[in-house]
Amino acid sequence: MRRRLLLTGAGSAATSNLIRSLRAGYRSLTIVGGHSDRFMLKKSSADRNYLLPALTHPGYFRALRRVIRRERIDLLIPTTDAEVRAFTRARVKLPCRRFLPRKAVVDLCQDKYRLNVALRARGVPVPATYPVSSLRSLETIFARLPARAPVWCRVRSGSGSTGAIPVTRPEQARSWIAYWSEMRGVPATSFILSEYLPGRDFSCQAVWKAGALILTKTCERLSYFGGGSNPSGTSSISQLAKTVFAPEVVEVCTAAIRAIDPRATGTFNFDLRENSRGVPCLTEINAGRFPSGTSIFDLTGRFNVAATFVRVALDEPVTLREIYDPAEGYYTVRDLDTPTGVFHADELFDKIEDARE
Q1: Same domain, 212 and 302
Q2: What residues are paired with 193 via a beta bridge?
Q3: Are 101 and 267 in contact (CB under 8 A)?
Q4: pLDDT (tens digit, 9 = 90+) per residue, 200-219?
């Protein structure tokens, strides 16, 4: 049977990478794309494409249901946090499957401070984190965090390291938060201050169903897309990343999901960083969607995470020899306006002559 999928955000980097992954791991698919931006949609690599209203438009779900029925869609896959949040509402009725976490889990994961508090209470390693109640509270928060160390200042919701910057003094945090409040309309109460984590930067992707971990993979970010021009110097979007064997990372991520939902279902993407003692601490969970750099989890190793997600979502039989597929030795390289490069370490010098000497 040829399965039919509808992916939102068609034409974006995240959806284009996901389509590439799905076609590599699941041959008998018809992929339909949707987007509210006709220019982005023109770039889509889906088999068929539909221009939709914006997610916030009153007619969005009416148009979406029309496309789902016309294309006989089996599974709808959102690609942004806003769509995940919208599609998990109990009152949203759609004539196809959605394989998403519960709304309460999505809401928790999309608030980085609430998630931090919930995980800390269950013994999951997380950085010490405090909410900003006002600009006057900054000195008090700094006094609670490790002395003579940077402090990580960021917005408690959103993706792509929104409003993130390392600071060393309350005055720096105050100026940064004031700027975002005055110029971007983000109030001071939207910020959190966290213990700075100096170690390795990990990403983990996992598929769960009814509380059972089906498949998980790990990678390490080595450099960041746009990191040099970003005030934080980092980003959740890697430019260079490599697959790694990191069972300690898998252990933390597994404990986190079991702490927030014993019956977890869907895909989860985790960000972690090592603290000064080398312990991987969980900084955020992107619930219900794949990362823009999903290629590193799908086009390496024995198992394709995105394709496995579709099979599990559609109740197809999935037999995996191992739940954890570390797929060591692969690198992904990303840059603007080029497809993600996926290479094994043994291939790095293929067709390259070393002219440095």
Answers
A1: yes
A2: 130, 153
A3: no
A4: 999 999 999 999 999 999 99
